[in-house]
């Protein structure tokens, strides 16, 4: 998908899209990293299925981009010392986070951050609030010269659905509640009020227009600030030697260190109702406390 997007100008229709995917796949399987799989006869069916899924998903990506004024500007974008985008600095520069952003799309003065996922993806506020899902907002924080239009996970694995069940939107995340920017993301929103890419919907009601699944700019900025504060707090606790177990939900099931931790005696953290307002309010209260 990374290589496909870099060469998407070669695509004109479904046939040329499939040809590009085939060309990319053949080159990948010639490389030392992937060629060993071709030697395993039992892996061939899996490889064929994988290429079939990639062919379908890449064409969906092409079709979406033809309906969007946002275009891929950069892929596999590194941030950190010496890179185009700076490291995320914590504790006054004692700790610096570096990383790699799968894709940045741009339109006019706006940008959107995209992260590919082969598993399940969620944009639930409770996972940001509890510190489990900070990635997209940390990525967004390193870009200073444009305005944020949205942050998205793109689940790229093929899924199964019941007969007649609609395909879910391609992107899972948060979109800026600005009609001009939303229409730039997907022209279908302007023409019929729904999008194959975004979760956002625009309904025409008697009392006016209703936009759902979109977030105002101040709240998006608060989400980014919250992710940075959570990292800052984590760095501070690490520096102070805080190692008390404080798992959230099912974290202990997947932790690689549970063999040396009496996690059975720990009650997992729980949250009440968490929504956008909860996160924005936490940031505001934190700023007020800092000023005091």
Descriptive account of the structure:
By secondary structure, this protein is an alpha+beta fold. Helix content is about 40%, strand content about 20%. The chain has eleven helices and nine strands. The chain has helices at about 1-5, 15-30, 30-40, 45-65, 125-130, 135-140, 180-185, 185-190, 215-240, 250-255, 275-290; strands at about 70-80, 90, 95, 100-105, 110-115, 145-155, 170-175, 200-205, 210. It has a five-stranded mixed beta sheet with strand order 1-4-5-6-7, with helices on both faces. The protein has a two-stranded antiparallel sheet with strand order 2-3. Helix 2 crosses helix 4 (about 45-65), helix 6 (about 135-140) packs across helix 9 and helix 9 packs across helix 11 (about 275-290). The N and C termini lie far apart (about 50 Å).
Describe the SSE topology.
Blueprint: H1 2-6, H2 14-28, H3 32-38, H4 44-66, E1 71-79, E2 88-90, E3 95-97, E4 99-107, E5 110-117, H5 125-129, H6 135-141, E6 147-155, E7 172-175, H7 179-185, H8 187-192, E8 201-205, E9 208-212, H9 217-240, H10 251-254, H11 276-291
Parallel strand pairs: 5-6
Antiparallel strand pairs: 1-4, 2-3, 4-5, 6-7, 8-9
Helix pairs in contact: 2-4, 6-9, 9-11
